[in-house]
Amino acid sequence: MRLAPNSRFTGVAVVADSWPLLRAGVRQTLQGMSLRVAADEATFESAKAAVGDRLDLVVVGNTLEDPRDIVAQVRRLPGAGDSPPKIIFLLDAVDAGGLRHLLTDGVEGLVQRSIELPDLKAACERVLAGHRVVSGGPLSVLASAGLELREPGLDSDDRAGLTRKEREVLSQLAQHVSNKEIAERLHVSAATVKTHLSNIYGKLGVTSRREAVVVGVERGLLA
Description:
Strand 3 (about 55-60), helix 3 and strand 4 form a beta-alpha-beta unit. This protein has helices at about 20-30, 45, 65-75, 95-105, 115-130, 135-145, 165-175, 180-185, 190-205, 210-220, and strands spanning about 10-15, 35-40, 55-60, 85-90, 110, 135. By secondary structure, it is of the alpha/beta class. Helix content is about 45%, strand content about 15%.
């Protein structure tokens, strides 16, 4: 694709997935963000052959290749400036062990392969802005397993100002239990749980349980 002369160029991307229709949708989404898609191929091995002297984003779905091997290859490719290319994996099936490895390897995006295109666009924008994104099935597995995901550059001691008890309540939210069950588990009153929730929402800048869990996962706040 050639961008029009007045288009706002935001970087170079490649797409790898075994399903042509999915690749077409992802390509269209990325082009709508003024990214130049250098290649969309059934495998990452084929897609990377089109990479020149710059690569900003890699979107990988089902390629039957080892995800960790893909990460290692991407980190050796030229990024923008001093930053390596960013990676988003579109996952079908997820397990805690696999997520742990990918998080340890510093993967920036882990989302459900069936993600809606507008949500994929939002995920790509966040990843390119320097955030980490986990959504759909990967988020549920991550929260249930108690794994931590920190924003790049986030101080390990930064707990968003949450108290120990507030972090305990946040951890319970990730297990999808009611206020009454949280109160029973933490041996506090239901009114106290409501107070903790109000404090958590305010400190994290969210308005719902789901948003609190998402932010908690992204910032590594789950105990």
